[in-house]
Amino acid sequence: MSTIIDTFIAPPCYEQVDVLYQDEHLLIINKPSGLLSLSGKNPQNLDSVHYRLVKLFPDCTLVHRLDFGTSGLMIIALNKVINAALCQQFSQRTVAKVYQALLCGHLNDNEGIIDAPIAKDPALFPRMSICKVNGKPARSRYLVLERFQQEIVGGTTVPLTRVQLTPETGRTHQLRIHCQYLGYPILGCDLYGGECLPGTEHAPRLMLHASELRFTHPISHKPLHFIHDSPF
Description:
Elements: E1 18-22, E2 26-31, H1 49-53, E3 61-62, E4 71-77, H2 80-91, E5 96-104, E6 111-115, E7 118-120, E8 128-130, E9 139-151, E10 157-167, H3 174-182, E11 208-216, E12 223-227
Parallel strand pairs: 4-11
Antiparallel strand pairs: 1-2, 2-4, 3-4, 5-10, 5-11, 6-9, 7-8, 9-10, 11-12
């Protein structure tokens, strides 16, 4: 059995966690890129979305997480009852999430589906892997929004595709590894090929943003829809 050793130390994040919506039951926040969702075991990784918010909302809990480099919309429950109700919506896949990303290269197809099972592999930690034998089902949709050329630091011009990504399942690193599997990794993704093209190693961040959330309010049962534009 492999022993997992996590040596990652998060650099300081000076951007604020913006509260976009608040009632007595839940918050909708915009997480900045470069901030952990939950504090790590290493005491140097104490700063996180939860660490910051619990100072203002002592009983708050995370309903779901975004990767360290991913920015965008998150739901925060303000008590355990709300957390349980929202987690049930996630497990029943009634929460709709939409992301925007910049992919390395120009996709040929304007839209499509990526259907590739994802598995944990302690030997590759923290990477996940596509595995048809041991992987859990994972499915994502993509829609091309634009194709363009962008000059990166150093004068290198890189072909990029802006896409809308809709995960139908919620596996760890799903969108990042699915885009690599498609052959067009997300720009700035250090784990899944997003820094391989000449010039892409200078990308300032992971170009993945949680831009849209739809779910049902656990108390009022009203449908809620939140949109937050991509910062890139």
